[in-house]
Amino acid sequence: MRKPFLIVYLAAILLLLIAFWVVGMATESFQFATSCFIWSLIGFVSSYLQTHTNSPVTQRTGLILQFAGLLGVILFLSPNWQLATMVDISGDLAWLMLIALVAVIVTYLVGVQWGKFYASISFVVVPVLSIFGLSIPIVSSLGIVFSLIVSMVIGIFLVSMESLLVRWQKGQLGQVTSGMLFSYCWRLAVTGSAMVLTIGLLLVPPATLLQTPLIRKLSGLPNLPFVLFNRSSVEFPDLFTMPGGPINLPDTELFRVRGITYPRWRVRTYAHYVGTGWRVSSDLDRTEFPNIRLKGKFVEFTWEPINATNSEPVKALVSKVFPHSNLLISPGEAVSLQTEISVREIIWRTKSGCLVSPSPIRFNNYLVTAYPIPENLPAPYSANLSPKERRMLSYFPHYLHRVQELALQVTLNAETPYEKAKSLEAFLRTNYRYSYSPPSIIGHYTDAVAFFLFEAKEGACDWFASALALMCRAVGIPTRVVTGFYSDEVDTDGSLVIRANDAHAWVEAFIDGYGWITLDATPASERYRFRLWQVFQWMRRYWASLSNPYIIWWFVALLWVMGMAPTIWHLAIRTWEHCKPRPKWQVITHCYLAAVKMALKAGLNLNMNATPWENAEACNQAPRFPIAGKKAFRELADLTVAILYAGEEPNKAVTQKAKQLLKDFRNQVNLYRRWFAPPKLPSIWLKTIKEFWEQI
Predict the structure, then answer these.
(1) Highest mean pLDDT among 144-148, 204-208, 666-670
(2) pTM of the entire predicted model
(3) DSSP assignments along 450-510, one per residue
């Protein structure tokens, strides 16, 4: 038999490949996961060269690879885990990275012990199971569960295959072939996994396997979109999440603007990312009391400019369509608001330049003056943020390693912060698609931005804005998410019309020495309408629709089918051999041989090698055997002799007679076995009973 040791190593490598992919999904750092896999691959190569080659040169090469690999793991991978613990990474992720390092080290230490104890390479199964145990609560998804099932099959195959190979190496298996060994281990792995999963899922409901991770439970965030339509107006909440799914906003007209046709109107700003959405900052949303001046029939609220840019302020007369709306819009950082003197409300401004009213608004028209946030780099001036604001607006979640890697890759050739911001904006506009009905994130239990960038690849403006804001922060650019309206609908009288479905989200980035600029990564809704993109989107949405936890039962059923397929195939072949059409003479001989086997099981003194007449005579000499049975066997023997020795050609009536004789003989044999045949106990049972009787 050819030694299939390479199969064991390939199974172990495939098992670690799946495990490190799960590590990359959980830690959002595929660079770390790829490094772990490469170093573990070197460990397997060194073990193979030391244990399965006869050349001293290759064995010394394997020994050098082993020590060099261990040194590389200590120098390159261990600092990553230490850095993760120093940057206040969560405990589960730190343990997950530590277990990944343990899995790498195991490949260097256990593979060289081949033959000294059973299944040395199979020790990698232990850290792999630990990796899945730590990863599922962090990034539980259908893909992770499917990987767990595949890893279970490969792990059982690895353990059984290596154990049998070690036994074969010691001469304990006898004459076996590679195909026999591989087939046995594969069937054992598939059926064993199916049995374990079936029992486990019966004891533990599948829904608990895909339950909400602990982080999501602790936060308890509701599924709240960034804009809500409330009767005759819209609301922008202090906290919004990004659940995905269709966006349903009517085309109800809310405002009419005269004086300018500037399309971008600010309402709220958000600074804190919470994993599934954004919330306002108590510092940026802190209100500033205005200076109040009376101008004839009007009252004017003024504030000092926040960022003294070189741009000119714009003025616009805003008319609310619905009087009871509490919404105030501004085309930039507001510095003045003028309305009728009969109004007794005081209008405040947040530190980020948005207008807010502490009480219900009773006026319908107001004149607002504001400095628009430029979309291109303005003239330089002494603009800076306070250390607290910079720290707050630059915070990037430590677990989004994959998002950070993507941002660094996109901005690789950009030099200035402005060029980096524009590169990220262009990247999202070019490679992602706008959708009014993006896939829902509910049931995926992953970060919203990571889901948008790496799985959905399409979304509404809130997903684009969130991704752009975090990617800018990943390269060191302070950002904030802004919600409001974007409208370019101009009526025949020259007024700008703002509707409810014009609600929009975008990003404002701070460039040192230049101030705030506007970034909007949301592409046109008609982008990427070609057929291949639609196929990809259909595949993504179909995969997302399979997030029901009970889909696991289909995987288990597939394992049962795969495990039972060889048995079913052999049974089908035997059934076909038994039931397929035969020549008439073969039907008669088959009936005769079946009768002989029945007689032997009943204890009659017949012989398979004797002639039909000799067996008929032996059956006739059997004591207490029914006469009808003896007669049926004699006639069946006569038919067999006539066919085999006399050369007669049987017809359909003869074959039917042979089948009837076999049926009659079977009935008589059953009667004989019920009343007269001695019970047949295995000899070991008789021996045991005899020894027990002698002891008594």
Answers:
(1) 666-670
(2) 0.57
(3) HHIIIII-EE-HHHHHHHHHHHHHHTT--EEEEEEEE--EE-TTSPEEEEGGGEEEEEEEE
